[in-house]
Amino acid sequence: MNNNTKYNSDFFVIKALEDGVNVIGLTRGTDTRFHHSEKLDTGEVMIAQFTEHTSAVKVRGKALIQTSNGEMESE
């Protein structure tokens, strides 16, 4: 990624509040597709960021999500 890229490189944190939380990365571009998946168990933490390839993240399961814009819980 070069310095002219306009993607937000802030990190966000996902902490699993139950076993089996799925974190799925979605691609950027005209066709949105799954490109990466992780499974977290209770207490596990994933630190991630948006990149030139990742435009969205889907979280399935109960997790705490912390971003520079605030904190939320998925159900």
Topology:
Blueprint: E1 11-16, E2 21-27, E3 34-40, E4 45-49, E5 54-60, E6 63-67, E7 70-74
Antiparallel strand pairs: 1-4, 1-6, 2-3, 2-5, 6-7
Describe the structure.
The protein has strands spanning 11-16, 21-27, 34-40, 45-49, 54-60, 63-67, 70-74. It is mostly beta strands.
Q: Mean pLDDT, as a whole number? A: 86
Gyration radius from CA atoms, angstroms:
13 Å
| Number of continuous helical runs | 0
Describe the biggest sheet? 4 strands, antiparallel
Strand content: over 45%
Q: Encode the helix/strand succession as letters.
A: EEEEEEE
Low-confidence stretches: none
Shape: globular
Gap from first CA to last CA: 34 Å
Q: Provide the spatial order of strands within the biggest beta sheet.
A: 4-1-6-7
Bin the helical content.
under 10%
Helical/strand content category: mainly beta
Extended strand count = 7
Give a brief description.
The protein has 75 residues and is an all-beta fold. The chain contains no helices and seven strands.
Notable characteristics:
about 80 residues; about 0% helix; three-stranded antiparallel sheet; four-stranded antiparallel sheet; mainly beta
